[in-house]
Every structure is written in structure tokens, then in C-alpha cells.
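Task: complex structure prediction.
Instruction: return C-alpha cells for all chains below.
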Amino acid sequence: MEKIDEFFKQLTLGRKPINLYEPIYYTLSQGGKRLRPRLVMMATKLFDGNAETALYPAAAFEMLHNFTLIHDDIMDDAPIRRGQPTVYRKWNGNIAILSGDALATLALQTMLNTPARPEITLQLSKLIGQTSAEICEGQQLDLDFETRGDVTLDEYVTMIRYKTAVMLAGCLKAGAILSETSPENQEHIYQYGINLGLAFQLKDDLLDVYGDGTVFGKKIGGDIRENKKTYLYLRALQNADAESLSVLQHYFSSINFDEDEKYQAVRAIYDRLDVRSQTEKQIAEFVRSAMQELEAVHVQNDDKKQIFKDLLIELSQRNK
Amino acid sequence: MEKIDEFFKQLTLGRKPINLYEPIYYTLSQGGKRLRPRLVMMATKLFDGNAETALYPAAAFEMLHNFTLIHDDIMDDAPIRRGQPTVYRKWNGNIAILSGDALATLALQTMLNTPARPEITLQLSKLIGQTSAEICEGQQLDLDFETRGDVTLDEYVTMIRYKTAVMLAGCLKAGAILSETSPENQEHIYQYGINLGLAFQLKDDLLDVYGDGTVFGKKIGGDIRENKKTYLYLRALQNADAESLSVLQHYFSSINFDEDEKYQAVRAIYDRLDVRSQTEKQIAEFVRSAMQELEAVHVQNDDKKQIFKDLLIELSQRNK
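Output:
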């Protein structure tokens, strides 16, 4: 991933106007998991593509991801990201809007510069375009859910598919496209990515309630405090008897409760309604689907798939 | 332009999530001058390109333009655009950020779908990518200028080049690229567009002070009221004696003056410092440069250039 860092540095460091490119460099140089470039490189290796070429889509998707973070942080009024002030707070809203716009453009330009045959570069660019559109749709659904009382579990899964899973899937497909593997392989690795992403997000929802705060890296119960309609909450609503329902609705009607009291009360209801094991079961189903898609991928040497199985385990069983 | 309207309708009307696509349809269906699609079609006709194919870049640039308006209106806290409430005011800031992001993505996707050879579609997409990056830079310069007291005329021209002229030039170049005319022709029509855009913006600055409010369509003196550092203001600063300078600085230090008093006082200084004729002279220079670039374009029948000359006259001599 040092090459990615070098790439970002060259693209933004010292570039003018400073107030546009400094927030971009600030965001990109914070690191984070770099999960998206890692997925592009993994798929490129699986399908015997060119790792040098893959740097472009790898960087492009990481930039697209960071663009969404900059804009989401404005919309969520979020003060901290990766332990640092958000662009929105460190600079201001206008600079966060504009540097986000510029970063989205840089992501596109990077993809368009992928040194491959024009057909391939065009396919990759259409992929990042589609991904970007779906992420906007997912974010809008998320915003819509805030004020809706009738969100279903299916709608929730659709929302996280767009907001989270399509980008992970897109990264894998990018590696498959540039390696010029078959359309079937492209589709199977994409669907592996979708299921990986869904499992990943549900695990996130689970850790927010049942994680160990000292390991998780952020405070437990944040979703409950903020009345976030997570998979656990929607599952609880679905299972709830009249009494549990009334307690849940009481606590999710305001953010002005004692934080710990609210967390303990909601968690007690989740426990009673068996929400934890049902969420774990759903995660296991997504993991199983991902494994099936992975098996359907045709490559000469099936040992090369091991790293994809390891990643599934890593992300779905993580404690942080 | 009915085809463009039909295009926009199909792309956005009734699409979900409603809260994402309704503001986009709202913005695109307001019309406006449709100058950008017109430029794409003009260049396509000049270079004997395919008008059906040109609809894609024409629509893409108009969408990119409208995306910038949606985000600029948030940054400027603007209540009204084209006589209607801005997206930011009619919905809210979050929806304006997100529907702007989605519209920028739609613009890109439309360009990527241009039905041409992959090399050509890729060139067109790189062009809209570059245009988008430069517009972000121009907008950032504009924001930076608000708090700077030492902006030069050259810096101002650089800012409007990026913020306004590159998109007009990009539209013309798009028509040239898809018509597969020579690189020299592409460059000359691009530079024609740059000079057209610079003349267009300076005329806008001029009309804000010397226009006829009943014809101009918006209230005269808005730039003065908002302390906008226009070409006229910067030219006045350059020309000013100590007394004029002190009056100008006094009035540009706050927005809490009686609107009419401030306008009359500033205009009197502009008059005294000969700012109007100097601005007109600068516009005439840009028009002359544009004409030269147009002459350097090689086409079989020079009569086809007439419409470009007419447009220059139309935009640089307009009263609204």
C-alpha cells in the first residue's frame, strides 16, 4: 500500500489552490483500513492481471470512498473521523463540500487514466460511475430512514447494499475487468463482494451493541444513542411483543436520555428478543453466499482463493 | 433543445429514491439558457459530426453545470435561482449536497455512454473530468478571494477562466472531438470558448453595475451589495487615488449599508475612475482574441463560422 500513499502524495501535495487540495491530502493520508485498494489488488492477483495497472483503480476507489466520508461527515455533523477532526470541522462546510467534489473528480480522472486498452479503461470508468451513483442512492435511503417509522429489514439490506457493499464489490470487479477474465468470473467475484459487504456492515451493527469498547476502537452503543435504525433494531421491532415495542419506541423517540441507561435498557430488550443470535445467523448466511460465489469462480489454481476465504473470516469474526 | 429536455426527463423523472432524483429533475427542468448544449451542437455542426451522438456530451455538460449551481447555492447561501427557490432552500442542505453529488455522477455516466468509438468516448470523458476539476479550483479561488484584500486583476481572470470559461470551451471541444476534427481545430475552438467565456463573465460584471434592472432580469448592484470582488472593483482599486480608495474600502468593509446609497456611491467612483470603458475595452480584447481563434479554424466552408461570430456579439453586447 506504500505505492498508493505515494500516488496520493503526488496527486495532491502542494497543489493549488491550497484550500482545495490540503483537505484532500489530509483525508487521504490518514490511512484507514485501505480495504478497497486491497480488494482491487487481490482480484487482480487472482485473475493474473497487471499489478501496476491495478494501482489506478485501487487509488480511484480509495479516493471515491474518502470523498463519501468527507460529504457524509457534513450530513451527519460528525466531529471526528479516524481519531482526527473531520474536514468539515477542521476547515468548514464550504471547503468540505468543495474538496469532496474535487476528490470525486480526482477519483474519476485517476480511473480514466488507467493504462489499459480504451475498452477496458472505459469499462472500469463505467463501473466507478455506477458505483458512485448507487452510493448516493444508498446514502439518500439512509437519510430517508431517519424520519421513517416503517423501515423493513429488506429495505435496510437494500440500503447497506448500496451504501457499503457495492463499493467493495466494485473494487473486486475492477481487478477482474482489468485482468480481462470472463464475464462469469467478473459477476461471481462481484457477488462475493456484495455478500462480503453485507456481512461486514451487519458485523459493524453487532459490534456497536455487543463489542468490547476497549478493543472496538470507538465507544459502544453509539448507534443506540443516535437512534440509528440498524439491523438489530429493525430485527427487534419485528420480534417485539407489545411491552418491548413500547420500551423501544420510548427510547428511540429522543436522544436526550442518560446514555448508559438507554444502552442498558435497549440491550436488555435485544437480549430478550434473541436479536444477537439472529443477526449472527444472518451474517453467517451472507458469508455462506459469498463462499458459494467464490467457489463458482474459475481459476487454474484454487489455492489462490484462500486469501478471499481468510478475508471473509477476518471481517465477519472481527472484534474491531 | 427539446431532445435534451426529453433526455433529462427519462434519466430522472420518477426514479428512486425520490428525495435524490426529484431535486435533480427540478433543477434540470428549469431550463435556463441551455448555452452549454447549444455550444456542443454548434461545434458538432461546424465540424460535420453526428448530432445524435452529440446529445450525450450536450446533456452531460448541462448536468455538470447544474451540479455546480446546486452546490454553489449552498456555499453562497443563495435563496433564489432562475426565479425559483434553490434546492438548498426548497429541500435542505443535506439533500442539496447529495443530489448535487448524484447529478455530477449522472453527468459522467452520460458522457461515458456516448455512442462512439471507445477512444473517442474516453477522450470526451477525460475532457469532462478535467473541466470538473478546474471548475472546483475556480470556485475555491472565488471563495479564497472573499477574505483576501490583495487580489490582482490577473488572478481574477484566472479565477473566472476556471469557474466559467473552461466549461464553455469544453463544450465546444467536445463537439470537435466527437467530430474527429484535427487537434489544431480542437485547440482553436477551445481557445475561442475560453475567450468567449471571459468576455461573457466580464459583461456579467458590467451589467450588474450599468445594466437596466427592468431588462437584466435581476436587481442591479447585487455584486456591490455583497462586496463581490468583480473585474470592475479590482480595476477601480488599481486606478484609485487615495480618496477613492478610502471610500471604496469603507463601503466594501460591510454589507450593512443602505443598499441604494452604497450602490450610488460606488458607481460614482467607478464612473470617476473610468472603470466602465476599461472593462468594455477588456471585453473587446477577449472578443478579438476569440475571433482570431475562430479564423484559425480550418473548415471547408467558412460561412459555417458565422453563427460563432453572432454568438460572440450576442453574448458580449447583451443587455440581460
